[in-house]
Amino acid sequence: MNVLASQAHQHYQRAQVESANPIKLVLMLYDGAIRKITQAHSHLSEEKVVDFQEQVVKVQKILSELYMCLNTDTGGEVAENLGRLYDYMIRELGIAMIRRDKARLEGVRSILEMLREGWQGAMENTALEEMEAAAPAPAPVEAETFSVPIAPTGEEAAMVAPSLNIAG
Fold first, then answer.
1. Do residues 109 and 121 lie in contact, with contact meaning Cβ atoms separated by under 8 Å?
2. CATH number at residue 38
3. CA-CA distance, 12 to 141, in Å (whole number)?
4. DSSP alpha helices (H): ranges in 46-101?
5. Which end of the chain is less congested by CB atoms within 10 angstroms, N or C?
6. Distance between CA 118 and CA 11 in Å, rounded?
7. What's the total number of domains in the chain?
8. What does the pLDDT read at residue 20?
């Protein structure tokens, strides 16, 4: 990738992060962590140990960032439980890195995918609630009686348009 394309890509990524809502940011971090675990798994399969370790460390940094952003005052028990999960995954990744253990990588990826799915649902619910709050209330409908003839009669029958057979 040439320098200009790389700079444009970095600018685009920065704009995405700066304009994203908090839930979208969390999803982006989960996506990055899942992608890095997948890359680490691939590097381990190819016996590229240094590349494998670099990717694992990047995932640990992402999880550390998520951990540091938790607010137990407003998040309460949910934030505490997420903190425990992040801590567990960081430790599992450390063991996976030392032992070169694909199963531990898969375990962490599985947890991340489950958490991502939950955050995706939260984002969709939030968007739905915002749409409902922004939508204007429907206008009240007055009860009226409508009189619609079932079949035309008299002069009305002569005015009925003939059916067109366009199938044949």
1. no
2. 1.20.120.340
3. 48
4. 49-68, 72-99
5. C
6. 29
7. 1
8. 64
